[in-house]
Amino acid sequence: MSRAGRWLVAVVVTVAAFGVSLWVCGTLLLPLWLKSGADRWAVAAGLGVAVAALAALGCAAWAGQDEDSSAGPGERSISAGGDISGIASTGDGTTNVQQK
Length: 100
Description:
Layout: H1 3-29, H2 37-63
Helix pairs in contact: 1-2
């Protein structure tokens, strides 16, 4: 799936999470505790925003991934504290011979 397609799915999931949580809280859960309609829907909207924020956080992480993220970031990278004067290995058994 393309990056734009994943962001579109992320937005749709976030809006759906807000709408479903708003409806469930406003019509099913909160009438048991809050009798005032205005208060009930204000609290339901706050809870809906909280649920949508959590959904947006997870969706943004998913949508921002690269297409080939199976190997992880920097799949063949290494770290050294100074100059590398010899052979450096990533430990994955792959050889990369550079000719001078």
